Amino acid sequence: MEFPDLGKHCSEKTCKQLDFLPVKCDACKQDFCKDHFTYAAHKCPFAFQKDVHVPVCPLCNTPIPVKKGQIPDVVVGDHIDRDCDSHPGKKKEKIFTYRCSKEGCKKKEMLQMSCAQCHGNFCIQHRHPLDHSCRHGSRPTIKAGCSPVTASESKPSGDFLTLAPGGLSQRLRYWFTRLM
């Protein structure tokens, strides 16, 4: 051997392999090879001092202290029942709180969409003044480029109101063909 002092032998009684990069156990302070450096692999008698697991609440991600002799599952269950902020049984904050003001519509939205003219709150489908028959003051809202009489007489076709991929481009084509 060229380097007889290089490396150390594994402290595991059944192994004794010469390892050039041994790992020293931080609990028992002995040298081990890559196969026996874990506490369980060399049955470390001092592992209980170092190998401490702290359970974490699955709901609020808070570490929960466990005393010696206590079962971690029971302690976490008690935390969820008493102290947990994210308990599923507790009242949750409602997300869809803004109800549509259009008569007959029961849809609710996450964000408030109020009409600039009548200040009513509407869903996505009824957010435009023409879609919810907006009346600003006593005068009905008219379509652009039409007199109040022709606006009330002309109704857009069913294709105009459908929302599909490219629906905006269909609406624009519709209006350009009407104006030309």
What does this entry look like structurally?
The chain is of the alpha+beta class. It folds into three domains: 1-51, AN1-like Zinc finger (Zf-an1 domain); 52-90, no CATH class; 93-136, Zf-an1 domain (Irregular). Helices cover 21% and strands 9% of the residues. It is built from five helices and eight strands; from the N terminus they run E-E-E-E-H-H-E-E-E-E-H-H-H. It has helices at 47-50, 72-82, 148-153, 158-161, 167-179; strands at residues 8-9, 18-19, 23-24, 31-32, 98-99, 108-109, 135-136, 139-140. The strands form four sheets. Strands 1-2 form a two-stranded antiparallel sheet. A hairpin with a 6-residue loop joins strand 3 (23-24) and strand 4 (31-32). The longest helix has 13 residues, at 167-179. It is elongated. It starts with 7 loop residues before the first strand and ends with a helix. Mean pLDDT is 77; it is low at 145-164.
Give the SSE map:
Blueprint: E1 8-9, E2 18-19, E3 23-24, E4 31-32, H1 47-50, H2 72-82, E5 98-99, E6 108-109, E7 135-136, E8 139-140, H3 148-153, H4 158-161, H5 167-179
Antiparallel strand pairs: 1-2, 3-4, 5-6, 7-8
